[in-house]
Amino acid sequence: MVKIVVDAMGGDNAPEEIVKGALLALRERENFSVLFTGDEARIRAELAKTPHDASRVEVRHCTEEITNDDVPTHAIRSKRDSSLVVGMTLLKEDPEAAAFVSAGSTGAVLTGGIMLIGRIKGVLRPALCPGIPNVRGSRTLLCDCGANAECKPQYLEQFAIMASAYGKAAFHMEHPRVGLLTNGTEEHKGDTLHQEAHQLLKANPNIEFAGNIEGRDIMFGDVDVAVADGFSGNIALKSVEGCGKTVSAILKREFKKNLASKLAYLCARKQIKGLADMLDYAKLGGSVFLGLKKVVVKSHGSSKANAICPSVIQALDAYNNRLVETIEEMLTSGALEKQDA
Amino acid sequence: MVKIVVDAMGGDNAPEEIVKGALLALRERENFSVLFTGDEARIRAELAKTPHDASRVEVRHCTEEITNDDVPTHAIRSKRDSSLVVGMTLLKEDPEAAAFVSAGSTGAVLTGGIMLIGRIKGVLRPALCPGIPNVRGSRTLLCDCGANAECKPQYLEQFAIMASAYGKAAFHMEHPRVGLLTNGTEEHKGDTLHQEAHQLLKANPNIEFAGNIEGRDIMFGDVDVAVADGFSGNIALKSVEGCGKTVSAILKREFKKNLASKLAYLCARKQIKGLADMLDYAKLGGSVFLGLKKVVVKSHGSSKANAICPSVIQALDAYNNRLVETIEEMLTSGALEKQDA
């Protein structure tokens, strides 16, 4: 049976919400099992709270944890018995292990992914790719959003290919439209990096390049993939997140002001919920770390069960839909074969 | 009398909405007059529609317009009788002219500002600085948001100083808290440019440096000034704009679905308006182009009268509150004296 390895100790709400979320996923989908890595006693205590099919759950005890305070490279090397290192090693070595999900330190997940699982042949730099809710009611894949603060044009070209492969494999996008995130829509916009990347994207026959896009097009535009260097991609992702949080804080404040506004909320709660649902990141799962030999999903550090559940399902779907193989095929079928870092 | 020069031909809704907006500003504030540059017949036709004090309005006829299709440097040099070139030249030469407001091509406003009005002595690169509505109900000054796609660490340091001066002069911020926009809050985050800028900001005694901030802190944080290179600042600004537009599109859709949702809107319209007001960019005016010898305000290209009016008032206030002098004082009082580009 296909197995999803879940880092039970990663994130602000571990292990309680992580375990709870993974059990939710088991209830939603059949034909897979979960293997938790982490403090067995704490994981078992949480498992005991929720009825579940014990034959679909395994626990691998680990004595260590990697935190946000650890230096990633050092932690991956020295904390060999951490939930993250044990989980990723399992993913690499166990042929039944399909994917790894963690809400732990982003830096450690990225470093561990590259050191322990390894890159697909030909991939210059793996990249983080979350789905951002958009005005069309679907998602825009933003790649890279933080794995690579400093990029070369060739990296951006590969981000476009990997995210397109992800769109095809996981979201049935037949010809994902790709935009290059810069400071204007004209072809000459941006710094040298983005100008050169624009030319590479334009010349690449394997992607559907729609030209440069601006930040507003991530949510309010018509592309399926927004390609970014990891620095500005991260800024775009977090800016949107801050705007969403601000909207929800203001709505809460407005509707809690007095009795009249509380009544108004009762009238309009269905519509407000419609908005909240559309903007809900958690529902869309985590960021997939594209370019590794196996599927790795990084969930937000503040994830609760309702965010872990879709992350586990997302990991399962990505595996079942042959994400890694699709990236391999797209990378080797095209012009990228001749390029090198 | 203090005179605000208004480019009547710039933007998608010129000259109608530009003239209308400037007349609104005349009604809201006393002790200033407006000088329109542009097609006199069209401006007069619009003036005739709204009762106003004719002694506070002048028109300077021009035969040319600069559009978004023009190459800025070439347009500034060749279209000498355009509303933008004539307006900026007036601003420079007329001692009564206090500020210039345009909703025209950003590139042309930036190029014209530098070529025709000139930089304050010691300013390495002027920068665009809009105010972004934040969760506290005030605004975060984002500088630079697009004038300089490629930056050096010293530019970022000056952006911090100029935006702090703007906060002091225009918004009564006594000690504006400054954050450096990067991909993480830790000191070592970002590329070399941002790491070096971090050290300069930390060492500068004239600003209140709060460390690195992430995109989410622009709207959902506690800084008054967010310093950014013009490339990622532009992406942050537009990302937030796209999120706001998406929220308002979804709300419209949700509340227009059927009769029940239309009734729900009637109940909650006060709260929805509360949200719309807080997120309303137009109300906050345009982006000030900091670092020039005179006040220049760039209003959004899609500005209607309700956005032009606050831009004119913002320009007047910036002049009356000695924006240019405050920048000069802050630049020369500190460590920056010794630096050079």
Automatic annotation (TrEMBL), chains A, B:
Gene: plsX
Protein's cellular compartments: Cytoplasm
Entry's Gene Ontology BP terms: fatty acid biosynthetic process; phospholipid biosynthetic process
Gene Ontology, cellular component aspect: cytoplasm
InterPro entries: FA_synthesis, Phospholipid_synth_PlsX-like
Reactions mediated catalytically: a fatty acyl-[ACP] + phosphate = an acyl phosphate + holo-[ACP]
Lineage, opening ranks: Bacteria, Bacillati, Bacillota, Clostridia, Candidatus Gallimonas
Function recorded in the entry: Catalyzes the reversible formation of acyl-phosphate (acyl-PO(4)) from acyl-[acyl-carrier-protein] (acyl-ACP). This enzyme utilizes acyl-ACP as fatty acyl donor, but not acyl-CoA.
Pathway linked to the protein: Lipid metabolism; phospholipid metabolism
Domain of life: Bacteria
GO molecular function: phosphate:acyl-[acyl carrier protein] acyltransferase activity
Enzyme Commission code: 2.3.1.274
A matching Pfam family: FA_synthesis
Key words of the record: Acyltransferase, Cytoplasm, Lipid biosynthesis, Lipid metabolism, Phospholipid biosynthesis, Phospholipid metabolism, Transferase
Name of the protein described by the UniProt record: Phosphate acyltransferase
Keyword Lipid metabolism in record: yes
Annotated signal sequence range: none
Family indicated by similarity: Belongs to the PlsX family.
Subunit architecture: Homodimer. Probably interacts with PlsY.
